[in-house]
Queue: 2 jobs
Job 1
Amino acid sequence: MDKALRLLGKLKNEVVGNEELARAAWRAAVGDRIEAHARFRELVRDRIVVEVDDRVWQSQMHTLEKQILAKLTRLLGKPVARQIEYRIAIPKPQPQMDVAQDFRLAPKDVEAGKIGDPGLRRMYLKSKRRASGQ
């Protein structure tokens, strides 16, 4: 992996830019655990912009900045950025679950109240209404 990234870094091809190289090398430079909390976002001039989960990750990653830049340079064979900017990611809204209310049909008689299953209770009450002509 390191050799492939180094070869890509030496290419003078316009198809593969510095941002693509940095994006490809980010996970190898920081590892899977850190990458889960600090995601590469973009390369702006000589600055890598990274989204982190919260302020704790922001301060922790700031202390590792020189090590990460050195590893990126070593992996790619050339310096891609001079600094890293850590931004706190805006939390994405989670889909809301439709919480079913624990409802119980108000039984009209005592026998329906003894039926524990709500579906069977409804069927019983429905058939009882049909039989009585309501």
Job 2
Amino acid sequence: MQIFLRDAAQFLPLLLQGVKFTLLVTAGSLILSTLLGLVWALMRVSGIGWLALIAKLVVNGLRGIPILVQLFYIYFVLPELGIALSALQASILGLGIAYSAYQSENFRAGIEAVDHGQIEAAQSIGMGWGMMMRRVILPQAVRIVLPPYGNIMVMMLKDSSQASTITVAELTLQGSLIASSTFKNMTVYSLVALLYLCMSLPLIGFVGWLERRFGKETRR
């Protein structure tokens, strides 16, 4: 135990540098996936056939390609087309685009779960589609999508480790580098697991709180 604590004190500063990049990748890709996912969802429910078809094709295409392949494509293939991105930018873009497909399905389910009678009431008083979405549909859909949105946040935090495959020095890559140079595999990966757990537990608690709160409101 003393050896573990001594090694932990030595390795933690380096691992915490990786935590910084893990949080950057997670936050950046979460924002991007939320914005893109909302766009795809609104296109799907717009009632305009060609817009809905484009969104459906994009979402299904993104869901059918592994995240790792999307990261490799953005980081290694786009430079051949004249679009060079740093590893951090590529990881945020890749994870954000990949997860926008799952965000889209979450948002679409929330929008479609709103009582159709409220849509008819909004239309009857002359609201256009845009105003109806802003004032009637989306505020109610947010309550429905928040609990699964929290689960997506946890998944994105864990999947940010895939950024290590394109040389982003996040937590997983930092741990691998330390382990390969010190051969302290058990200590290093135990610390990596604990750090991911420390980042995930607050999010898991937040998701549970959302489910309890909005579950009660739904039953009222």
